[in-house]
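Narrative summary of target 7.
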Amino acid sequence: MEIVHRPVLKEEIWNFLKPDKPNELMVDTTLGEGGHAEFFLKRSPTLRVVGLDADETILNVAKSRLAPFKSRLEYYHTWFNNFFQSYPLKLERPDIILFDLGISTFHFEKSGRGFSFNKNETLDMRLDEDLEISAFDIVNSYPQKELAEILFRYGEERYSTIISRAIVRERRKGPIETTEQLKELIRGAVPAKYRYGRIHPATRTFQALRIAVNGELVRLEMAILNAIKILKVGGKIGVVSFHSLEDRIVKNIFREKSKTCKCPPEQPVCTCRGGRIIQVLTKKPIRPTEEEIRENPSCRSARFRAALKRKEEEL
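Modeled conformation, tokenized:
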């Protein structure tokens, strides 16, 4: 299968997460088509990589791409939160953990699962096709208020109520089955000035549905918290996010875990035995250069944060 996804911020991620010694273990929690893993494996001849992905189809694409490095690779078809919650006993603790939270170009262009409103496909949006609930189910069966809440919470959609009411009206006539139907419904529902803005009026709704279908934000918070616990002391963790909801979770966890004291501010004497768990390496999120954005416009919203583990967490 043709490789269609270009990994973002490769050099910047390498500069923060590169191995410090031979034979380190890296967990690529969102292997995708294997772009970041390939970059690291080429640059570090002794690095070993464990690659995870919730989508078995794209995992097989990565296996084909990374075949030259198969002796240094191990694959898991799993969600990253499940992986770190039940970390395999046979694996040593990792030195490097990378989260690249962007949806692969494969999913938008090749999967046929309705991730993009630029294609007329069945409303699905499941990264793992074993998930029970699809975008079709949410759009065609959820109550209007619940739909509005999803669009507002996960898409930060200002017209969530208007759009959700339009969805409910339309589905009374028959099921909303395709991305084209949903896109045109949204375009017709929102105020005229919103139809011709910087982004397509369906962008936030499609994002919200995808996040809801896959439980992305809940999984992310669980995964990062457990990944920090599993990471070796002296190891590094990096996260690439693509919208403010993801980045806020990462920023808040990194800030909390880098505090030297966790006692309440009104408490005069420290009793928590202090000591930061991680040291944040990126004072501000790293953004793509103008050159990278010109070459790969889809990377324009990427933000990268990295941290070094300083000590174990107390149970």
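Residues 77 and 186 are 35 Å apart (CA to CA).
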